[in-house]
């Protein structure tokens, strides 16, 4: 496998995910849910490394192991349970809380904010049920009507403002991309889908496009290659300004405003926090065009 082919595969989210099976769906405890998600990420990480090394035999074996554990659908089931209302895990509730002041400007008008929810698991979360939002939902493996089965990295680039969105939600999506360069490409691609244009007469005059980003907290608190400060530097280089942030023991929630004033800096995978117990989560920004974007 050549380096060019490997790079192309790793840049596309769908190709970083293994084939799926339809497992039986017994009730999952909170502990079982966490273990399933953790195991799936570990296997996916190993698969990405094997793919990058061109080890097709190891990729095949890891695919078999992932399928034996239930594949993508089982992972999605665990994620969906983790985000269920009973467990208070709907991350979009915080998003609505953060943008409520903006949404109040739309009260009494026919206009709505256009939202793209990447990695959507439900049509009944707080974001979907809000009357001021027009939500487009996509996921690699749609679990219900109302969610389009699509890889964001393969979604055609907007032809005009009407194909763009005022807000993009990446809730526990970026961490699923199997390599650091692919994560950078996803963030850069988000910019192409954002707009601050509204129809004539819309009361939202000073609105700036938004990106809602949710990651597992260890991605920035226990990584060898990424910290909150470096994440801010990376996002600033693309043109984003941090508006809101919240950290819990499990997750980091951030709301980024697109200012369209990028620094255009490049970021390599550089060791910041050495340590045997740390993880390898990283985001790389380079000046090469995304293979996915170049096809559209």
UniProtKB/TrEMBL annotation:
<protein>
    <recommendedName>
        <fullName>25S rRNA adenine-N(1) methyltransferase</fullName>
        <ecNumber>2.1.1.-</ecNumber>
    </recommendedName>
</protein>
<dbReference type="InterPro" id="IPR021867">
    <property type="entry name" value="Bmt2/SAMTOR"/>
</dbReference>
<keyword id="KW-0489">Methyltransferase</keyword>
<feature type="binding site">
    <location>
        <position position="119"/>
    </location>
    <ligand>
        <name>S-adenosyl-L-methionine</name>
    </ligand>
</feature>
<dbReference type="InterPro" id="IPR029063">
    <property type="entry name" value="SAM-dependent_MTases_sf"/>
</dbReference>
<comment type="similarity">
    <text>Belongs to the BMT2 family.</text>
</comment>
<keyword id="KW-0539">Nucleus</keyword>
<feature type="region of interest" description="Disordered">
    <location>
        <begin position="1"/>
        <end position="29"/>
    </location>
</feature>
<dbReference type="GO" id="GO:0008168">
    <property type="term" value="F:methyltransferase activity"/>
</dbReference>
<feature type="binding site">
    <location>
        <position position="139"/>
    </location>
    <ligand>
        <name>S-adenosyl-L-methionine</name>
    </ligand>
</feature>
<keyword id="KW-0808">Transferase</keyword>
<dbReference type="Pfam" id="PF11968">
    <property type="entry name" value="Bmt2"/>
</dbReference>
<dbReference type="GO" id="GO:0032259">
    <property type="term" value="P:methylation"/>
</dbReference>
<keyword id="KW-0949">S-adenosyl-L-methionine</keyword>
<comment type="function">
    <text>S-adenosyl-L-methionine-dependent methyltransferase that specifically methylates the N(1) position of an adenine present in helix 65 in 25S rRNA.</text>
</comment>
């Amino acid at each position: 496998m050549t380096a060019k082919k490997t790079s192309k595969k790793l840049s596309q989210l769908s190709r970083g995910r293994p084939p799926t099976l339809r497992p039986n769906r017994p009730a999952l405890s909170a502990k079982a849910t966490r273990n399933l998600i953790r195991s799936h990420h570990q296997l996916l990480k190993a698969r990405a490394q094997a793919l990058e090394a061109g080890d097709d035999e190891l990729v095949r074996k890891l695919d078999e192991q992932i399928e034996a554990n239930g594949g993508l659908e089982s992972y999605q089931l665990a994620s969906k349970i983790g985000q269920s209302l009973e467990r208070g895990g709907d991350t979009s509730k915080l998003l609505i809380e953060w943008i409520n002041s903006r949404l109040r400007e739309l009260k009494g008008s026919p206009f709505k904010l256009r939202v793209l929810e990447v990695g959507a698991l439900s049509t009944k979360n707080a974001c979907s049920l809000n009357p001021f939002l027009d939500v487009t939902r996509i996921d690699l493996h749609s679990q219900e009507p109302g969610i389009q089965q699509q890889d964001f990295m393969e979604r055609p680039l907007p032809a005009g403002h009407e194909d763009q969105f005022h807000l993009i939600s990446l809730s526990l999506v970026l961490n699923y991309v199997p390599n650091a360069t692919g994560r950078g490409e996803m963030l850069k691609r988000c910019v192409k889908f954002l707009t601050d244009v509204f129809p004539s007469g819309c009361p939202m005059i000073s609105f700036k496009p938004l990106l809602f980003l949710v990651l597992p907290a260890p991605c920035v608190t226990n990584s060898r290659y990424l910290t909150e400060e470096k994440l801010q530097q990376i996002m600033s280089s693309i043109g984003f300004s941090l508006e809101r942030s919240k950290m819990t023991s499990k997750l980091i929630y951030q709301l980024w405003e697109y200012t369209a004033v990028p620094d255009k800096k490049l970021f390599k995978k550089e060791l910041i926090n050495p340590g045997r117990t740390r993880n390898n989560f990283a985001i790389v920004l380079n000046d090469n065009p995304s293979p996915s974007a170049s096809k559209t």
